[in-house]
Amino acid sequence: MSQVQRSAAAGSRSFGRTGSLVPLPAGPWSAQVPEITDPERRVYVRQIAAAMDERKERIGQHAAQHSLPWAVNALGPVPGDQPGRAAWRRRAASIGAWRELSGHDDPADPIGPEPASGDPDIRAAWHEALAALGPVDGPDVRGMTDGMLAHLRDTYPIQTAWAPTWTGDELRFLGGRPPYGYLIADAGPHPNPAKAADGKRLHKLGTDPGAMPVVVRIFAEFTAGHGFYAIAEGLARDGIPCPSAHDPARNRHRCGIAWNKHAVRAILTNPRYTGHQVWNKQRKDEVLIDVDDVALGHTTKLRWNESGSWVWSGQIVHPPIIDRQTYDQVQAMISGHAAAPAGHKPHRRQHPYALRGCLWCGLCGRRMHSHWVNGAPYYRCRFPAEYALANRVEHPLNVNLREDAVIGHVDQWLAIELAPHRLAGTLCDLAQAQHAATITPAGEDEEPARKIADCDRKLAQYRAALDAGASPATVATWIAETEADKARHQLAARPAPARTRMSEAEFFLDAAGGAR
User: Fold this and answer.
1) pLDDT value of position 214
2) How many other CB atoms are found less than 10 A from the CB of residue 470?
3) Cβ neighbours of residue 181 under 8 Å, at least 6 residues apart?
4) Average of pLDDT values for 120-137?
5) If residue 36 lies in a helix (H) or strand (E), which one and from where to where?
6) Which of 136, 125, 135 is nearest to 100 (CA)?
């Protein structure tokens, strides 16, 4: 075997091992000149490399000047601004250099398929032209070999055979309370075979005949110039129930007294009334509990994202109540009325409130909010400023209660309840409360056993599906999840370790300073 044959065989073996790797960017020819000891040859080679770089640059200029079809098809029209035109010309130069080097002259296909040749310079030029084309939507198959494409084609039916029939744009209802104006409607069997076998159904949003006209009225009145509170006043005056009163079963945490201006604003800013599903409206941020004491750690807070970063479904997935144009008009009006956002302020130190969450307004029955004024803790109720037609309840505009005005009465009550002459009764009450907390509600012991039996039933169904020819990988995932649930329920079913509880005699001995 000659030296040339041995070199060709070595090159073929090397390409067989590295042909699937993407070559590194070649860069300009001037940077690829090897070290040559002969000065004359070194100068000559550098002149050739510089001429090749100049030729590549002229190809890009020619493509931009004459708007060549292959360049326009690959990169779009030539930009009018100077920076965009220069970037377009550089990308066209990489593609044109590859076309001239390889002899590819198809006006519709800019670069053609990846060359099968083992020449590293040819492959590097093709990959440089591929990078100049820019990214594509979805999987990039342009640089894949025929073997990789055949593998994708053969595995596609296997991977999609057990995939759900719905996609992100077709999701009907993600759970939770439906927005005011909608009802939860049945949408047929669940598309997931495992959930369908458990009897679960798919749900979607349907319009509520009683509330849908109210939503339309709210949008119409706001676009006509009415404010949040004026709209709430009109709805309450006409006797229309507020959202929490309209559906009290799903709003047990609401008072349902009257329309609130915040409820009107929530309806006007809800994008789901357009019929689209929207994601990424909120994010989780980690903030310091106390900026002056980093050792306290962080807490997670939900923050609203800018509307520009929301993700909208590509199609309408439930009946719209208002059109997208009206919704965008309302958002523009709300943004126009809003004040400019304040600059970033350092997180305030959390103030102590001894009675936070423990005080209710005696006039309207709503929980009073804590706030700090002039270095002192206060509790207030602003019922008339938030609810429409508040004059139905005799309530001042603001009810403010200073903490030191009531904390003394609380201390006095505690001193009476825990007085020495009432020590025996207090200790008996503590002992009884201790034993009352250990009483297990009826039916609580049976709950873990029922869940474990449900997991066993699911496992039997999954094994039957596997025997019937279901995808082993998919069924294995179901089995692993169900077995994890079963283990968790089994752990919950274990009897809790006996806790040491004090008898009444031990309480008395402890209070007297005796043996513990």
Assistant:
1) 93
2) 18
3) 207, 208, 211, 212, 214, 215, 267, 273, 321
4) 73
5) none
6) 125
Average pLDDT, the chain: 76
End-to-end alpha-carbon separation of the chain, Å?
A: 98
pLDDT in tens, 211-251: 999 999 999 999 998 888 889 888 888 888 888 888 888 77
How far is it, in rounded angstroms, from Cα 364 to Cα 371? 19
Which residue did the predictor score with more confidence, 413 or 135? 413
Q: Is the dihedral of CA 26, 28, 34, 35 positive or negative?
A: negative
Closest alpha carbon to 101 in 72, 124, 82, 131: 124
Contact 245, 187 (CB under 8 A): no
Query: What HEC string does 150-216 produce?
Result: HHHHHHHHHHHHCCCCCCHHHCCCCCCCCCCCEEEEEEEECCCHHHHHCCCEEEEEEECCCCHHHHH
- Asked if residue 95 lies in contact with residue 111, where contact means CB atoms within 8 angstroms, the answer is yes
Question: How many whole angstroms separate alpha carbon 191 and alpha carbon 231?
Answer: 42
CB atoms closer than 10 angstroms to residue 17:
8
- Distance, CA of 211 to CA of 246 (rounded, Å): 8
Dist. CA 184–CA 207, nearest whole Å: 9
pLDDT tens per residue, range 416-450: 877 878 777 777 877 777 765 555 554 555 677 88
Phi, psi of 373 (to 5 degrees): -135, 125
DSSP per position, 266-320: HHHT-GGGGT--EE--EEEEEEES-TT-GGG-EEEEEEEPPGGG-EE-SS--S--
Instruction: State how far the Cα of 64 lies from the Cα of 99, in Å rounded to an integer.
Output: 16
pLDDT digit string, tens, across residues 15-46: 444 445 556 666 777 777 788 888 888 888 88
Radius of gyration in angstroms for the set of CA atoms belonging to the chain, rounded to a whole number: 37
* Neighbouring residues of 55: CB distance < 8 A, sequence distance ≥ 6: 97
Find the mean pLDDT for residues 151-157. 71
How far is 61 from 79, CA to CA, in rounded Å?
Answer: 13
Phi, psi dihedrals of residue 262, rounded to the nearest 5°:
-70, -35
Residue the block writes with tokens 């590859």: 98
How far apart CA 469 and CA 158 sit, in angstroms, is 12
Q: 475-508, pLDDT tens digit by residue?
A: 777 777 788 788 777 777 776 555 566 666 666 6
What's residue 1's pLDDT? Answer: 46
* pTM of the shown model: 0.47
φ/ψ region of 86 (left if φ > 0, alpha if ψ in -120 to 50, else beta) reads alpha
